[in-house]
Amino acid sequence: MATTINDFSKSFKGGVRANLFTCNVSGPGLADRSTEFHCKGTSIPASTIGNIDVPFLGRQLKVPGDRTYADWTVTMFNDENMSLHAGFEKWMFDIQNHGMNHQALGPNEVYGRGTVTQLARTGKALVTYDIEIYPTEVAAIDLAWDSNDAVEEYAVTFAVNWWVPKVGGLGTGAGNTSGDDAVKWSIGGSLDSDGNAAATGRVSISL
User: Fold this and answer.
1) 3-state secondary structure of 120
2) DSSP element (H, E) containing 4
3) Would you place residue 169 in the very low, low, confident or very high pLDDT band (cuts 50, 70, 90)?
4) Which helix (H) or strand (E) holds 164?
5) Could you tell me if residue 113 is left (phi over 0), alpha (psi between -120 and 50 degrees) or otherwise beta?
6) 103 CB-side CA count, 13 A
7) Cα 91 to Cα 110: distance, rounded to the nearest angstrom
């Protein structure tokens, strides 16, 4: 346990900075449009494992339930040609037409990918979150004659099917990365006699 500020300084080592990150979104309507340099802010995505209360003789046994994923929001600077904004609008238009109850995209074509990478102060990728998404809201852009010296911005909210953290960035393998300080993890699985996937429940983590 640290007892002096010097002990604390040696152990704390500065922490991770919230302004060191990269974010990319790809999907229908965003072809050849890079979002990386227009993303003002976002968040590391959240998820929740539900809880099932099982009664037994007046007590409650806590049993893990299903995982749910919170919506993910990205705040974008509006580019000069509004091409990114138009791309998000086109993506939503192809999911649900403005004038009629019509969907131009197939059931599996509505989804895109988001990635958010936390960077160290050296520029090294610490962890990248790979997220399957589709947009549910492109927020309004406020306009005003007295709004000077500011770049327009807007928020895009996405529904999330799943996300996977990949330590060290989007490398190959089950989130593994090289280096002595890397965190390595894997999830085991198998197939039953009918060819269906069956999780073994084995998770291994090594430092």
Assistant:
1) coil
2) none
3) low
4) strand 153-167
5) beta
6) 8
7) 8
- Summarize pLDDT for 38-58 with one digit per residue, the tens: 999 999 999 999 999 999 999
Scored b (16 or more CB within 10 A) or e, 72-97 reads bebbbeebeeeebbebbbbbbbbbee
**Domains in the chain, CATH or no CATH each:** 16-171 (2.30.110), 176-207 (no CATH)
Contacts of 8 (CB under 8 A, 6+ apart): 2
* Pick from 31, 196, 24, 197: nearest CA to 109: 31
Cβ atoms of 66 and 58 within 8 Å: the answer is no
Q: Comparing C-alpha atoms, which of 184, 16, 43 is closest to residue 116?
A: 43
- Taking alpha carbons only, the member of 203, 17, 29, 54 closest to residue 133 is 29
Per-residue model confidence as pLDDT tens digits over 81-114 = 999 999 999 999 999 999 988 888 888 899 999 9
Amino acid found at 70: A
The rounded distance, in Å, linking the Cα atoms of 114 and 78 is 18
Q: Own/partner pairs for 166-169, CB < 8 Å, 24+ apart?
A: 166/127, 166/128, 166/129, 166/130, 167/126, 167/127, 168/125, 168/126, 168/127, 168/128, 169/117, 169/125, 169/127, 169/128
pTM: 0.76
Dihedral in degrees, nearest 10, Cα atoms 44, 49, 50, 52? -160
